[in-house]
Amino acid sequence: MTCDDLPPLMEAWLDSELDTRGAADVASHLEQCARCDAVFAAARRGNEHISRFLRPPAEPADTMWQAIEKAVSEPARRPLTRHPITWAAALLAVLAAVVLTWRATPHPQEETSPSLVAALQRDHEEFLAGEFGPAFTGPPPAHVLAAAHGRVDAAAFAALPAGEGITIEGARLCHLDGVPVAWTLVRHHGSPVSWIAVRRGELANFPALRDALATGVPVVIEKSGPWHFAARSLGEYVICALGQTDAAALVALVALAR
Amino acid sequence: MSRDTHRHSRFLDYLRPLQAELEGYARKMLWEPQQTADVLQNAVLRAFAAFDRYREDASFRGWIYRILTNEIHTLNRKHSRRAKFEFQLAPEELAELSQSLADDADGAWEQSVDDRLAAALQSLPDNERTVLLMRGLSGLAYHEIAVALDIPLGSVMGYLSRARQKMRAVLAGTELNRRKVP
């Protein structure tokens, strides 16, 4: 067995899933080859870390499982197969419910929920079309903050990216679907990026983004046509960036913001 | 004891030892983890309805994982139109990102390693994520995974190998970052 034979067998060997002869061949090679032995040891440590991360809850969620077991128990006590008429009634009830639900909901919820990404994209395209632009540079003037009625403060305009290749052109107060946000035009190596800070409390207006952040991922991203979008929580605000900058760079911008 | 009662208690005898791992598996597999209870209940009811067809000589774990995985994939597909916010960075890009942030001495990149592993897990293709969770979370043997997913043993090994390589790449990037930041 040579070094080239080992990679396809590594996971199976680490999981003790190789047959006796295969396992012996691998073990024999590892004893003689310090390089392969080091690779396998590093992979084992990595797999142990991944297993710790993946481990299931120590105890199942009792309330949930009690409800599931109850649901399983009920048909056992009242087997429908012994009462064919019950099947017919249940089928009719289900059909009625489906029809009523269908009639009551002509549009799926996801099509009616306001999308922060879509609203920001519209604003960005309007900026690119020259329909609006930054209104001030530096800290926001008092009249801008007054127009926000306390829903955006100076800190929102200060939560900005920094680093090589990043320039801040200016800012203004914008409204996305009626929600006030601090909008800043950032350039990343010359490419325009619409940058906003929106209060976390305002995300009730944008449930898709609120739910995505609630999953605990460090940065949520979306690709929409030519645009990349990235967002993360920062203090009492959520900061978002949208532009044609590649996704990794956009995530880095959001990650480095203060 | 009636036949129905016997069937019911036998089913629960199989199910109860697996509850924690099934719950953890569903929670990590779902695009919308808040639907864990719903998807588990649907899968368990489906399994119970089909329990007469379960062969005692087969692995109950593999069998119920197959049912649960189908339920999860169905639900994930249903939500894929609006699951717009999946973390789409490739793990290699995540690793590079960790390195590029290595000079961030005052800790702007404060997310834990687990957060980054969670993001990487979400970025895996469905088949790699499924196999990784079946092995890494539930501890299913390779042949049980092959049965549960109805795929050859070689595919199980291939998916698992690719998934772990990507997850280890994230860990490697994270570790590099930790060493460089004072």
Explain this structure.
The complex is a heterodimer of chains A (258) and B (182). By secondary structure, chain A is α+β, with helices and mostly antiparallel strands. Chain A contains eleven helices and six strands. Chain A has helices spanning 10-14, 20-32, 34-54, 62-77, 84-104, 109-112, 116-128, 142-147, 154-158, 207-214, 247-256, and strands at residues 166-176, 179-188, 191-199, 220-224, 227-234, 237-243. Chain A has a six-stranded antiparallel β-sheet with strand order 1-2-3-6-5-4, sandwiched between helices. In chain A, a hairpin with a 2-residue loop joins strand 5 (227-234) and strand 6 (237-243). The longest helix of chain A is centred in the N-terminal third of the chain and has 21 residues, at 34-54. Chain A is elongated, with a radius of gyration of 28 Å. Chain B is mainly α. Chain B is built from nine helices and no strands. Chain B has helices at residues 3-15, 19-29, 36-49, 60-80, 91-100, 113-123, 126-136, 142-149, 153-180. In chain B, helix 6 packs antiparallel against helix 9 (153-180). The chains are: A alpha+beta (258), B mainly alpha (182).
CATH fold descriptor of the domain at 108-255 in chain A = Phosphorylase Kinase, domain 1
Query: Please, what is the CATH homologous superfamily of the domain at 108-255 in chain A?
Result: MucB/RseB, C-terminal domain
CATH class of the largest domain in chain B: Mainly Alpha
Separation of the first and last Cα atoms of chain B: 68 Å
Helix and strand topology:
The complex is a heterodimer of chains A (258) and B (182).
Chain A: H1 10-14, H2 20-32, H3 34-54, H4 62-77, H5 84-104, H6 109-112, H7 116-128, H8 142-147, H9 154-158, E1 166-176, E2 179-188, E3 191-199, H10 207-214, E4 220-224, E5 227-234, E6 237-243, H11 247-256
Antiparallel strand pairs in A: 1-2, 2-3, 3-6, 4-5, 5-6
Helix pairs in contact in A: 2-3
Chain B: H1 3-15, H2 19-29, H3 36-49, H4 60-80, H5 91-100, H6 113-123, H7 126-136, H8 142-149, H9 153-180
